[in-house]
Amino acid sequence: MDEETLEQVRSIVASIPPGRVLSYGDIAEIAGIRSPRLVGRIMAEDSADLPWHRVLRSNGTIAEHLRSRQLELLRAEGVLADGARINMREYRWDG
DNA sequence: CCGCTGACTGCGG
DNA sequence: ACCGCAGCCAGCG
């Protein structure tokens, strides 16, 4: 695992403002890496100190083992779900 | 080296 | 809306 990309990904996630979200693919693109899965892996390893709940799938859905917790955290900062789906066009962070 | 797995994605049927 | 599939990177057996 490349230490630099790891730090890069982490800093991008850390910079997402409250009430906004990014997809794994968005972060991969910004970080200049080819695989969104790598972003997911990095998040899975250790994201406790990051606003990890602001990262979700490109279509606005969330992996099921995180779904209820994540939707709750998002709701607390004004990101409302239409059922199990977040409207990305509305909440995606432009930077 | 091979195959499988996952906080993923876009395209096609 | 629901599949499946190819591409993707890294770790594990």
UniProtKB/TrEMBL annotation:
Domain of life assignment: Bacteria
Keyword vocabulary terms for this entry: DNA damage
Name of the protein: MGMT family protein
Pfam families: DNA_binding_1 (PF01035)
PANTHER family per UniProt: 6-O-METHYLGUANINE DNA METHYLTRANSFERASE, ALKYLTRANSFERASE-LIKE PROTEIN 1
Keyword hit for Transmembrane: no
Domain Methylated-DNA-[protein]-cysteine S-methyltransferase DNA binding: 7-79
InterPro entries cross-referenced by the UniProt entry: ATL_DNA_repair, MethylDNA_cys_MeTrfase_DNA-bd, MethylDNA_cys_MeTrfase_DNAb, WH-like_DNA-bd_sf
Organism of this sequence: Saccharopolyspora taberi
